[in-house]
Amino acid sequence: MSIFTYQEKDIYYEIDGTLDINSDVIVILNGIMMSTKSWDAFVENFSKNHVLLRYDMFDQGQSSKIEESYTQTIQVELLKNLLEHLGIAQANIVGISYGASIALQFAAKYPTMIKRMVVANVVAKTSPWLKDIGDGWNEVAKTGNGLAYYHITIPYIYSPQFYTLHNDWMEKRKELLVPLFSTRTFLDRMIRLTKSAETHDVIKDLPNIKTPTLIISSEEDYLTPPFEQKYLQEHLQNAELVSIPNCGHASMYEVPKTFTALVLGFFGQTKLDYQI
Amino acid sequence: MSIFTYQEKDIYYEIDGTLDINSDVIVILNGIMMSTKSWDAFVENFSKNHVLLRYDMFDQGQSSKIEESYTQTIQVELLKNLLEHLGIAQANIVGISYGASIALQFAAKYPTMIKRMVVANVVAKTSPWLKDIGDGWNEVAKTGNGLAYYHITIPYIYSPQFYTLHNDWMEKRKELLVPLFSTRTFLDRMIRLTKSAETHDVIKDLPNIKTPTLIISSEEDYLTPPFEQKYLQEHLQNAELVSIPNCGHASMYEVPKTFTALVLGFFGQTKLDYQI
Amino acid sequence: MSIFTYQEKDIYYEIDGTLDINSDVIVILNGIMMSTKSWDAFVENFSKNHVLLRYDMFDQGQSSKIEESYTQTIQVELLKNLLEHLGIAQANIVGISYGASIALQFAAKYPTMIKRMVVANVVAKTSPWLKDIGDGWNEVAKTGNGLAYYHITIPYIYSPQFYTLHNDWMEKRKELLVPLFSTRTFLDRMIRLTKSAETHDVIKDLPNIKTPTLIISSEEDYLTPPFEQKYLQEHLQNAELVSIPNCGHASMYEVPKTFTALVLGFFGQTKLDYQI
Amino acid sequence: MSIFTYQEKDIYYEIDGTLDINSDVIVILNGIMMSTKSWDAFVENFSKNHVLLRYDMFDQGQSSKIEESYTQTIQVELLKNLLEHLGIAQANIVGISYGASIALQFAAKYPTMIKRMVVANVVAKTSPWLKDIGDGWNEVAKTGNGLAYYHITIPYIYSPQFYTLHNDWMEKRKELLVPLFSTRTFLDRMIRLTKSAETHDVIKDLPNIKTPTLIISSEEDYLTPPFEQKYLQEHLQNAELVSIPNCGHASMYEVPKTFTALVLGFFGQTKLDYQI
Predict the structure, then answer these.
(1) pLDDT at B1
(2) Which residue of B has its CA nearest to C45?
(3) Where is the AB hydrolase-1 domain (chains A, B, C, D) (predicted)?
(4) Residue A10's beta-bridge partner residues?
(5) Nearest beta carbon to residue B245 from set C42, C241, C265
(6) Spatial separation of the C-alpha atoms in residues C121 and A224, rounded to whole Å
(7) Touching status, chains B and D (3+ beta-carbon pairs under 8 Å)
(8) CA distance, residue D63 to nearest chain C CA (Å)
(9) For D143-172, how does the pLDDT look when each residue is reduced to its tens digit (9 = 90+)?
(10) With contact defined as beta carbons under 8 Å apart, do A53 and A120 qualify?
């Protein structure tokens, strides 16, 4: 466990593997409710051939909160400064949802610092529809009712198929999450994080992003639906797209083997230029 | 405007056209938040070659509320008694969402009273997933916060594409609906209606339903997703299925021309037996 | 049975219902291998509230052949002249595949003569891919091998699901069609019809077509796949789109009830302007 | 270049990397028209962390032909004997189309010899529909017309989107392939290979196959459409499924980066058991 102090705030991060100048680094950018811990089950595979960097963004997990409201730009700057602090000149980046929107903004702003990226369950721009959904989350968060917050967020994060098939697991998650969702601190973090994503918009940047990109869609993703990733694929210069049937927004949890395969296999290719 | 008194409650209904023994009747079964009024724009077309019967179920629109909790069975019985009261021996039934689940239950219980049916945006059984979504709606309804209730329900009822394209219309709906959603009476009705749908389950009935059926799916339906209607089509004896691209749960509002075409065209065929 | 003599050729047509100045007419435009007879099972429903006009285009069914090669323009002109000959100032047009491409070209060229249209399983432009498929058909047609022609065309016209489920019916069709497909006359007609579709291209016309349009896609259409109709819907001014799951290119045969519902219901609406 | 003599026939194979008892081996099973050479562009990546074994099955590439007709069982036995000959006790197997059906049969028959598999663009059973398509191929193959054979096979192997976008590349392929498709030897091989796949059927085996499996679907696959792979995924014990939008049957050629990512990433995971 390590702390990077940035703008007088503590940023929690973990490194698996030995970081040096020749390391082929994978950085994970969490989804909005996630943290470094969410990826524990993935570490063994992700760090087999790569050095793995996980960290909590502002208002996530064990990193400091930011009291005033902000946009995702501060998360982009945090990533840049964290990489520089660790001496990582260029990294492979995998992000899901909130984390993937940071990845897209980072690729637009600091293209030389990103080697390849895998972005899952993400949009090019927060639509009025998605903004209203976020507003609903935040209005409920303000009430402090953790059970209500659970019920208006979590079902939309998993596919109905997974939710029904793994109902026992979901019930255990409910027991685990409702107490957390009932704490003022967590809800205030969620309110600020949700708000920060409202202005996400890389529409104009897409045609300039040359980073080799693999995009992951889930066919039952009801927050960032597949048509959004088709848009990304059509407007990025160098992107391929895969889609996961019967899978919801939290693709990493529903199909961990496939998610890992895509990440390891995309970052692990020596070259991406096939002369067929 | 007419009132049918049933179990000492007032049931509001409207008939367009002249009802007699030879009438080819279409009955509309509302979605959960809808009422007789929701269909005003459809009346001219629906009543052109048919007699049209619209009504508000218990706890809908101008019909009486029911204080204690109940299951959808009382809505099924209401429909049966209303038809008998009006001397309608057999009717074509079109239902959407909540109304379509009543249609399925009615077809299972009173098969001779239903000629054909069009069921849109509906499931065979309320899954644990859908139940939890309903619970979330109800927990927010209890708080009385109309804006929160709007934001946690309406975005999931329209497709993101429609919501974004018709943002002005959605904003006007918000102005219209938030005051309604802020009244205790409406929210208590919604709580009971939502609760009544929890036990909906026609899985075992499907193979016995012989009613000629047309099923409507919407590709961006995030409450009753397309795989649910595929299940229905595979398990009903006599059903065809259509799907609407870029359309959400409220298919009647998003594609009124197509919705009407399917209803009129399916009920209007003299015979359904094609010798190709 | 009636004959319209046009450019010294015989054009076969049939009218169901009594044609007069107030008739609300439906005209059917056949797919490439079809003829007036293909629609016999649909006549009762299609002529219930409308006057129905069916006809065979040049090189189809009982109409004359054209020896030299031609483009679809002659079919568009034929339709215009046939309508004028019959005194039909404006008609509803339903076309499938080849017939639907004629409908689109007709709507672009003679907009006042078309009231509404339903176009099924059609493209805006014959792509290099579709052209090569047509070339394959024609190369086999030249050999005169009717069984080969059957096997390289018919399986792509039905969905695998339908083909497998109705294998007996398909086998009967094979017995019926292979002798026909083995005649030089039929194959030469097919060669010319196929060739005439190569230059189909209404891409530039689409934004100017204001005809109220309903587009039918089939999810297992392997000749004019769903993305082609999405393109049409996005570029036409006034079009809605429905998609049929588990259905192939010959949607009228696979889902006759749904196909008829869409046609009758779309043409039967008094007005198409819904004030929701 | 190496030759394995099996049943007095020559089997051509290539190994990249140094094979020993600890090697983690990937074996490639070709699609029907493919050969060892088809994978040249993939060798660098596939052999980075694995020993790569490619070979031509009977009637493929540089391996011997078999004059009499046969079923796919001989290809399954060939694979088993080749692995034993090379001292490979267990291998990761990746197969596409014809090769993937061999992989499924092999997993059913010799489960201990297969560690994991990636199967792309494959069916559980050759349906009457697919059989008729194969019959069409073979009837044209008998005529010896290479151009016709090209046009009735190749367009269905690529997606219309790829075919149109890479029209120049397709034209070059046509120049390359038509002469090959015009040789009696090649066509006779194709006839036998196609015929051998007619009896492919692992429906009853699927529930017993425990091999960890990743299945690849292409959304525009018109020979082995996505519903076929959904069937596989639902009936295998341990399989995940990904789908590639805008991609046709030859997924390895259309999206080589994604195809490689899935293969390398699935075989490269140390363990596949995620405790989420």
Answers:
(1) 75
(2) B269
(3) 25-254
(4) A5
(5) C241
(6) 30
(7) no
(8) 29
(9) 999 999 999 999 999 999 999 999 999 999
(10) no
Coil, strand, or helix at residue A1? Answer: coil
Q: Give domain status of residue A148, yes or no.
A: no
- Tell me if B132 and A156 make a contact (CB, 8 A cut-off): no
Q: Do D143 and C147 touch (CB under 8 A)?
A: no
The answer to whether position D150 is within a domain reads no
Chain A residues whose CB is inside 8 A of the D276 CB are: 41, 253, 256
Question: In this structure, which amino acid lies at residue B127?
Answer: S
Element (H, E) at C216: strand C213-218
Q: Write out the DSSP string of B185-222.
A: HHHHHHHHHHHHTTT-B-TTTGGG--S-EEEEEETT-S
Chains with 3+ CB–CB pairs under 8 A to B are: A, C
What domain count does chain C have? 1
Contact B111, B210 (CB under 8 A): yes
Facing A263 at nearest CB: one of D48, D230, D265: D265
- Which whole-number Å values give the CA distances from C203 to C124, C234, D45, in the listed order? 6, 11, 42
The residue whose two tokens read 């079109």 is B94
Of C148, C154, C161, the CB nearest to D140: C148
In a domain? residue B230:
yes
The per-residue pLDDT for range D107-143, each reduced to its tens digit, is 999 999 999 999 999 999 999 999 999 999 999 999 9
- The domain in which residue C30 lies consists of 2-125+199-268
> Is this prediction's pTM over 0.95?
yes
User: What does the alpha-carbon distance between residue D222 and residue D159 come to, in Å, rounded to a whole number?
Assistant: 8
Q: Rounded distance, CA A129 to CA B165, Å? A: 10
CATH number at D31 reads 3.40.50.1820
**Contact assignment for C242 to B242 by CB distance below 8 Å:** yes
- Crossing angle for the helix pair B167-181 and B146-157, nearest 10 degrees? 140
How high is the pLDDT of residue C108? 98
The answer to whether residue A232 is domain-embedded is yes
Residues D66-94 have pLDDT tens digits of: 989 999 999 999 999 999 999 999 999 99
pLDDT-above-90 percentage for chain A: 97
ipTM of the complex: 0.96
- Dist CA B61 CA B29 (whole Å): 12
Q: Cβ contact (<8 Å) for A128 and B163?
A: yes
- The Cα D49–Cα A38 span in angstroms is 28
pLDDT per residue as tens digits for the range C124-135: 999 999 999 999
- Who contacts D8 (Cβ-Cβ below 8 Å, separation ≥6)? none
CB-CB under 8 Å, B257 with C44: no
H or E stretch covering B29: strand B25-29
